[in-house]
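DEPOSITED CHAIN:
***
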Amino acid sequence: MTHWRQNSDPFLAPDLGRSALLVVDTQVDFVDGGTAPIPGTSAVLPAIARLVDAYREASAPIVHVVRLYEGDDVDLCRRRVIAAGLDIVRPGTAGSQVAPELGVPPLDPESLLGGGLQSVSPTEHILFKPRWSSFYRTELDGRLRQWRVDTVVIAGCNYPNCPRATIFDASERDYKVLVAADAISGVDARHLEEAGRIGFSTRRPTRSSRRCSHPSSR
C-alpha cells in the first residue's frame, strides 16, 4: 500500500478493504476533443484506469457515476444551453459514453435515467446522477451499505464541482473519504490543503493498491 496524507484521527483513517471506487463524470464530452472538455481530465485518464484495474482485480466495488443532460432536469447553470440544443453528454450520443480508456460498455440511457444501476460486472456498475453530488437523488448510499462499504475513493473529472460535492455528501453520511489526488482533474495544492484541513485523506495511487482485499472478494 502506498503512503497517503491523512488526519491522525483513527475515525477518519480509510479502510481500503471496505472501500468502493467512485469514478465521477469521466465521459467523452469532458475529455480533450469533447463538446465541453475539462482541462487536465485526459491527462489523468491513465491514473484512473490503473485504479479501475486495481479494483477489478480485487473484485472490489466500482461505480462509474455519469451525467446525462436531457429535458428540463438539468442544473440551472447549464439549462439554457441544453434547452438551446447543445449536445453535452446527451443520452445516446458518443460524447455521453465513459472514456474508452476505462473499458466500460456502452451506457443504457433508459435504465440509467430510470434510476437503476447498469451492471458492468457483479462488482462494477454505472450510475446516473441528476446533479453534482453522486448521492443526490440516487441509490448510491443504499448500495454502498449493502456492499458493507465504509470508505469511498474518489477519482474522475473536475474536482471543484461534482467530485467535491460527492466528497462532502459522503462525509455527511459518515463514509471515510480518500481523494485520489493524481486520478482526478482540477486538483491543486489549495484543494489538497483544504481536504486535509477538513479531515479527508489524499493519496497518489499506484499499482500496489491491487493488493487490497475486500469482503466482496472473499
